């Protein structure tokens, strides 16, 4: 959470960052990937980063050098939006002119679904550095042991891959018919499930955990499923979703989609308060809807936009974000852009290593997925999705596959004012041809880093 008031480096603005963390902010995606590797694992300070904003390590020294007050280990326990004050657990009252809420989210606990046992010493969640360190210790202490992964979403899939790489036997349990049910089609999911199976992962789908067997030392020894089956377990990893941290602001700011509702400047229902990242529900112009996203690219870009809107309110356009999700597991790597609604067509080689899908809704391309693409190809699907071209011939889209996005990105249609934001007026009727794309770069992570970056950029003007 960041507040602003005046600074030694820039007398106009002072940034203060208040964090419940004991260490400086870091990029969480590393926790389920490089951090869990048995060899040459990522460790801080390597991911005290702000991907896209600069190449610097954002250690406490960095904050100090840039005139940003970083207050660690301090939780804000209440907020008074009318009086513009925050109260910390240490009893300190902080006044602000502008407040940026970047409180993110917390992992959902099993207890919220009526299952006890989260406190057992071998049950792990994965939201923060402490959780990831606990999982590393568990993997080291039970070589060749059995892990049960509860949940088939991002965290479950990425943890399962890391556990296997650490030579742990993995069983995944989730209620849906296939993994990554919120994003993947059954066909895409089946590719990943087969890949995981080839690495030894077992899947138990369509059921949920009902209880744990816990020994006298407080360790889980087995997981009991609702269908009565029993899975021996040396460790359990739970990835069952997150809840945005909005409680400080409930009843004071308008909430939507479980988050703090903001406008296209990331400004909440109170004009002095902005919200960014996982906690913010913002208008996604491309879809004409309010969405709350739980992804790092959205956190970086919404933070950057909020800072720009605070610094130069009259110059800023509305936030125009193209939703972007990605994951990397084993040797696999996928990216998704846009929205997974409407009719879906698949393309590419599902028996090989490069394939994808397009989603078409109301006659326009709205979403694109690609596994195993090159940099140019990922950039092409991003660009094509952003352009929302009209698709009249779905069969042709299927036939062109990757070639469609590459062609569109090479020769983008001119957006027209007359189609009320529906997308580009390019119509897919016949095959189109070219094979290269240009780049787009993601920027910024921590709100303070973005603020500093923006301040510097302004001074250069
Ligand atoms: C293990 C893991 C892997 C991930 N991998 C990917 C990935 O591959 N790709 C992807 O797109 N996304 C990924 N994500 C999601 C991504 O990390 C989040 O979208 C991103 O961290 C959101 O950033 P944020 O700043 O909004 O919130 P957070 O990163 O949650 O930060 C919130 C901060 O606010 C602090 N805070 C909360 N309440 C208070 C309070 N009352 N007082 C003071 N401080 C407070 C917290 O301590 C924390 O420091 C992953 C997440 C996890 C956990």
TrEMBL record:
It is an enzyme of class 1 (oxidoreductase). Residues 23-302 form the FAD/NAD(P)-binding domain. The chain crosses the membrane at residues 432-455. Residues 322-405 form the Monodehydroascorbate reductase 3-like C-terminal domain. InterPro entries: FAD-oxidoreductase/Apoptosis (IPR050446), FAD/NAD-bd_sf (IPR036188), FAD/NAD-binding_dom (IPR023753), FAD/NAD-linked_Rdtase_dimer_sf (IPR016156), MDHAR3-like_C (IPR048618). The keyword Mitochondrion does not apply. One of its GO terms (molecular function) is monodehydroascorbate reductase (NADH) activity. Gene3D superfamilies: 3.30.390.30, FAD/NAD(P)-binding domain. GO terms for cellular component: cytoplasm. Keywords: FAD, Flavoprotein, Membrane, NAD, Oxidoreductase, Redox-active center, Transmembrane, Transmembrane helix. Its cofactor is FAD. Its EC number is 1.6.5.4. The keyword Hydrolase does not apply. Belongs to the FAD-dependent oxidoreductase family. This is monodehydroascorbate reductase (NADH). It comes from Morus notabilis.
């Amino acid at each position: 959470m960041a507040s602003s008031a005046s600074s030694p480096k820039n007398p106009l603005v002072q940034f203060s960052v208040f964090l419940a963390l004991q260490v400086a902010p870091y990029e969480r995606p590393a926790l389920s990937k490089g951090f869990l590797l048995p060899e040459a694992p990522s460790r801080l300070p390597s991911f005290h980063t702000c991907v896209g904003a600069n190449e610097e390590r954002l250690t406490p020294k960095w904050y100090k050098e840039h005139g940003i007050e970083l207050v660690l280990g301090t939780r804000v326990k209440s907020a008074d939006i009318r009086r513009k004050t925050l109260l910390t657990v240490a009893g300190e009252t902080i006044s602000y002119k502008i407040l940026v809420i970047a409180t993110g989210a917390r992992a959902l606990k099993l207890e919220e679904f009526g299952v006890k046992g989260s406190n057992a010493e071998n049950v792990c969640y994965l939201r923060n550095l402490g959780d990831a360190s606990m999982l590393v210790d568990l993997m080291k202490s039970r070589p060749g042991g059995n892990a049960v992964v509860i949940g088939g979403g991002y965290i479950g899939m990425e943890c399962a891959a890391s556990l296997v790489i650490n030579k742990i036997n993995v069983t995944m349990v989730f209620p849906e018919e296939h993994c990554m049910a919120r994003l993947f089609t059954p066909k895409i999911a089946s590719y990943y499930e087969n890949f995981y199976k080839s690495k030894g992962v077992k899947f138990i789908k369509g059921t949920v955990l009902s209880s744990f067997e816990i020994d006298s030392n407080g360790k889980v020894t087995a997981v009991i499923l609702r269908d009565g089956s029993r899975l021996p377990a040396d460790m359990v990893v739970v990835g069952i979703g997150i809840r945005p941290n909005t409680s400080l602001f409930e009843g004071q700011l308008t909430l939507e989609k479980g988050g703090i509702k903001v406008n296209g400047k990331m400004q909440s229902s109170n004009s002095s308060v902005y919200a960014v990242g996982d906690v913010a529900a913002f208008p996604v112009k491309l879809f004409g809807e309010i969405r709350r996203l739980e992804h790092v690219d959205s956190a970086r870009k919404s933070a950057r936009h909020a800072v720009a809107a605070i610094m130069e309110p009259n110059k800023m356009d509305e936030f125009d974000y193209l939703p972007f999700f990605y994951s990397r597991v084993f040797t696999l790597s996928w990216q998704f852009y846009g929205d997974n609604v409407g009719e879906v067509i698949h393309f590419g080689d599902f028996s090989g290593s490069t394939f994808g899908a397009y989603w078409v809704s109301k006659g326009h391309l709205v979403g694109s997925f690609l596994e195993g693409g090159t940099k140019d190809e990922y950039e092409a699907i991003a660009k094509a999705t952003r352009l929302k071209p009209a698709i009249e011939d779905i069969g042709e889209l299927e036939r062109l596959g990757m070639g469609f996005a590459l062609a569109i990105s090479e020769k983008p249609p001119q957006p027209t004012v007359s189609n009320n934001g529906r997308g580009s007026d390019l119509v897919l009727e016949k095959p189109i041809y070219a094979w290269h794309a240009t780049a787009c770069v993601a920027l910024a992570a921590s709100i303070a880093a973005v603020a500093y970056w923006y301040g510097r950029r302004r001074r250069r003007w």
